[in-house]
Design the sequence.
């Protein structure tokens, strides 16, 4: 595909592959992948979202594409089908596409080299390729990172999620993959009461670039249940936040929220091994 634009530097000089990861499950990683993919597509960026959670796929449901799957990532890796046969176009956007995971195979059925070979084939067809990593730091995580130029780490402002994010930052650094932080489900009322870590707290603990902050928003649950990314809802605070993240991925310089209200960081012991 000619005219590739809006991407940061990467290994091939074409589409950028970004792994979306967390370490901890349940922090909104898959929802974030779908929402960012939809937001990038709305900006005219031809975007492929890849479900790398073999055996436990969910990205297809959040995008409302679960009934259209014929082939999947494993089929492409094993040469059961051509790459284009496994890719499904969104019903909502001409720029958004899904490469689903297998629902019946074990996560160890493919290795890093096979996943990298699959994703590298798509580089010149897409501006962005977002890879939804499974939870944990085992084979599925390594597969999801295999072709990545950079990473988005999704965390919530909870100590357990932040500790796992810190662990993943170290693993990505060992692979030479630069991470950026997406803070999800922040509740500013709780922050002001001193019952939740603030944006500044989380950034200070993890020490990496912040790419976006998403407020806790019930519309995300509704969006996931209806198969329509929250990005399409102009009244959703979360949807607007994901749109701003997409703008930053495309090179726009937009301000980020800073420190809001009180902090509970002084109540939390550093014996948990987070940060410095």
Sequence:
């Amino acid at each position: 595909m000619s005219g590739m634009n809006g991407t940061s530097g990467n290994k091939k000089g074409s589409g950028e592959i970004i792994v979306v990861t967390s370490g901890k499950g349940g922090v909104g990683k898959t929802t974030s992948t779908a929402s960012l993919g939809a937001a990038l597509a709305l900006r005219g960026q031809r975007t492929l979202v890849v479900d790398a959670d073999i055996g436990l796929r969910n990205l297809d449901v959040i995008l409302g594409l679960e009934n259209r799957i014929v082939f999947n990532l494993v089929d492409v890796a094993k040469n059961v089908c051509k790459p284009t046969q496994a890719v499904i176009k969104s019903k909502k956007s001409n720029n958004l596409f899904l490469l689903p995971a297998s629902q019946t195979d074990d996560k160890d059925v493919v290795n890093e080299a096979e996943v990298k070979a699959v994703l590298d084939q798509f580089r010149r067809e897409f501006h962005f390729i977002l890879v939804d990593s499974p939870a944990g730091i085992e084979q599925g995580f390594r597969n999801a990172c295999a072709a990545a130029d950079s990473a988005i780490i999704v965390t919530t402002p909870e100590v357990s999620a932040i500790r796992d994010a810190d662990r993943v930052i170290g693993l990505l650094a060992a692979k030479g993959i630069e991470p950026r932080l997406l803070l999800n489900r922040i509740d500013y009322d709780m922050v002001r009461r001193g019952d939740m870590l603030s944006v500044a707290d989380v950034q200070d603990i993890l020490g990496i670039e912040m790419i976006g902050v998403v407020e806790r928003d019930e519309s995300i649950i509704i969006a996931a249940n209806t198969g329509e990314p929250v990005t399409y809802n102009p009244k959703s605070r979360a949807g607007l936040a994901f749109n701003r993240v997409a703008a930053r991925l495309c090179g726009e310089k937009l301000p980020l929220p800073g420190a809001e209200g009180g902090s509970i960081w002084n109540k939390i012991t550093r014996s948990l091994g987070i940060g410095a």
Summary: The first helix runs from residue 29 to 42. The mean pLDDT is 87. Residues 87 and 182 are 27 Å apart (CA to CA).
